[in-house]
Design a protein that fits this description.
Elements: H1 3-24, H2 30-33, H3 37-61, H4 73-101, H5 113-167, H6 170-186, H7 188-208, E1 214-215, H8 216-234, E2 238-243, E3 252-253, H9 257-268, E4 277-284, E5 287-293, H10 309-321, E6 327-331, E7 334-340
Parallel strand pairs: 2-4
Antiparallel strand pairs: 1-3, 4-5, 5-7, 6-7
């Protein structure tokens, strides 16, 4: 219990004590009215805090979710039964204490006014505590959700910026337009196909950069367009193999994920006719795996990309939308990126 909750319950007990004093002042003197105030305050505080901690214990032990979130009628009946049982137990405790301190006033009968009056008051307090706690929890969850949403939005903004930065990289544009210019003087049909693939890459970026996740099949179509451009540039120096399970094509990943991994492979590795770059994109279980033979360049192509900004950003996205993060390892001269696939019903 944090300090704010403690002060809140302390205030409730204080108000109950004041009400008890005002009630007794109708028939008793002031000194007589305040005689049992410490006892009333202590019992009320023990009762309210006991209800609070008992509720927390039940929520932790129960397979059900929080009281405010349940839609099932049987679950509501179960919690109603728990509240009645708690009220009955606390009523017997109060009755026992009353018989100790006021044996002449407290009736031993379970049908007496004291028993049912105490039961009514206690169940009202329990319901009050439950309603207050449910409200506080809903407000905390709402605030947490808003913060999470803002965090996701910030990560999406960073991802969008990074994707645009990669796609609008002057080197990428320069090489693409150079290749297009060369093709136009050699093979106009190939030049037209090159232009269509280039437009597909940019169209995908414009259409999906705002989305949090996209189906795997869309990412595969994008990477095929992207690799068509790279094949025109590098010819037989770069090769790619796809082994995609059709049952996984509706699974989800963040947009531009495959493009980022393939572009990193091209940027950081030697791509030559005598040392071709082999890239494999396969699905294995609930993962999409991108592998390439590891033959790093002597110097980084791009100083910014050498710091792994794109991969760090990808990990941050997964921290927000999934329970498992991507992994990147180099083993047996093979660089492997293992990206979790997100089930579409999540």
């Amino acid at each position: 219990m944090n300090i704010n909750r403690f002060l809140f319950y302390f205030l409730i007990c204080f108000l109950v004590s004041v009400v008890d004093i005002l009630r007794d002042l109708r028939q008793e003197s002031f000194l007589e009215a305040i005689e049992y105030v410490p006892l009333v305050f202590i019992i009320t505080f023990i009762l309210t805090t006991g209800i609070y901690y008992l509720r927390l214990w039940i929520l932790k032990k129960s397979p059900l979710n929080r009281f405010t979130h349940k839609e099932s009628k049987s679950n509501k009946l179960l919690y109603g039964l728990i509240i009645i049982v708690k009220a009955t137990v606390f009523t017997f405790i109060i009755r026992l204490l009353g018989q100790i301190f006021e044996p002449d006033y407290v009736s031993y009968s379970l049908t007496g006014l004291f028993f049912w009056g105490s039961f009514t008051v206690i169940i009202s307090v329990i319901l009050f505590v439950y309603v207050i706690e449910a409200f506080l929890e809903s407000q905390a969850e709402k605030q947490e959700f808003v913060m999470k949403l803002n965090e996701i939005e910030n990560e999406r903004t960073v991802a969008k910026y990074q994707a645009l930065k990669n796609q609008l990289n002057p080197h990428f544009l320069f090489n693409s337009f150079n290749s297009l210019s060369a093709l136009m003087s050699i093979d106009i049909n190939k030049a037209d196909d090159f232009l269509q693939q280039l437009s597909s890459v940019y169209r995908y970026n414009l259409d999906h950069s705002e989305e949090l996740v996209v189906p795997l099949d869309k990412e595969i179509k994008l990477i095929k367009s992207y690799m068509a451009l790279q094949h025109i540039r590098f010819r037989e120096s770069i090769q790619i193999i796809y082994q995609i399970d059709e049952s996984k094509t509706n699974y989800l990943i963040p947009p531009m994920t495959l493009e980022l991994l393939v572009e990193n492979a091209i940027k950081h590795n030697i791509v030559e006719k005598t040392n071709p770059l082999h890239i494999t994109i396969i699905t294995k279980g609930d993962y999409i795996i991108v592998e390439n033979n590891y033959q790093p360049r002597g110097t980084a192509v791009d100083q910014d990309s050498s710091f792994g900004i794109g991969l760090k950003n990808l990990k941050k996205q997964y921290e927000l939308i999934h329970t498992e993060a991507p992994t990147f390892i180099v083993e047996n001269n093979t660089y492997t990126a293992r990206i979790p696939l997100i089930k579409p019903d999540i």
